[in-house]
Design goal:
heterodimer; A: about 250 residues; alpha+beta; 12 strands; B: alpha+beta
Amino acid sequence: MPSLSKKARHRAREPRLDDRAGPRNSLAARTVDRAVSTGTGSRSGLVPQRKSIATASSDSIQLKWTTAGVNNVLAGGGGKHAVDDLNVQGYEVIHFDSYKFTRQFYHGPFNWFKDGSSKPMERNGWHNRSRKEIAISDQRDNGGAASTLVHEVAHANQHYINEQRAKGDLDPAYRDTLAKELDAHIKQEEFNLAANLPPKHPSFRTEGNEIDEDAIARYVQRVYAVGANARAYVDSTPVWNTIETIKPWPWP
Amino acid sequence: MIGKLYKRHRARWKEAREIKAVLRQFVESPPPELMRMYSIRLSGESLKGTWREVDGESFYIGRWRLSRKEEGAFEAAYGQDDTGHGGVEVVVEIDRVNGVLEVIEWSVKEFF
């Protein structure tokens, strides 16, 4: 690929699924054939593998969330703006099966000694602003995926606002992870309440079923403030499979 | 046998030294956006520690996880995470340009 820059070639190496046939973006789809690109490490392994779509019925899987199902939940909670914001900013949503790995903590001089045994861990998804991608695990149902989407679109909007302010040489409106997460968690909880979804964490609601922002702030502080003080650890290579990529997100 | 092991060890050591130099340059002069947009602070501390193999595809240099990619390229990820939920990972793609390893692209993955 002599005409591509080094950066473009990097992107080109990643397993892309755009040329894949199938019910991608189909509102009616309830099942899709098990995919397709095996991702290890981050998005690709030693050699990106692109398997052909399985056609055997045994490979069909029942998805826990679909765009149609998520749209129903979004419509019920007044969350259509999340889809609008997602599409306007050109995001791609990656629907993956699961993202599992094990983590071994270390301690002592030079972090030489193992701290207990390795623990199985799982990611629910991620947001990558540079690549304009939001990945959501299929371990979530339609309600969970809709709630996650609202949360991640809140992050996308924060980045957009920060970028606009940076152009005007202004300080970012959302300075750090804690500020971003607090805002996104509150927006997510507002949506959960409107859509009759359970709170992300039981402490997020008062006894009167109102949003407890102080509890959200405490949760965010506890979960997201670890930062550079995190204990030393070694993760195994994560394994995950892309089921479908969605861009733009369809809205009926 | 010992000769083969020695050669393998030496190759890894050279590779790790080269990667470490690239990452050191990155952490010591990180892109301004990394600080401004994500408030992520990187330092040489993150590179302290031994080379540690995870499996055939990944290994660690200090607290950076390196994944081998095709054509001798690497993806390096530095996580600031303790729980497995809600961490951020700085992802740096490293590849050879004119025979020298360089940072080609960086991004931040915010996990949930």
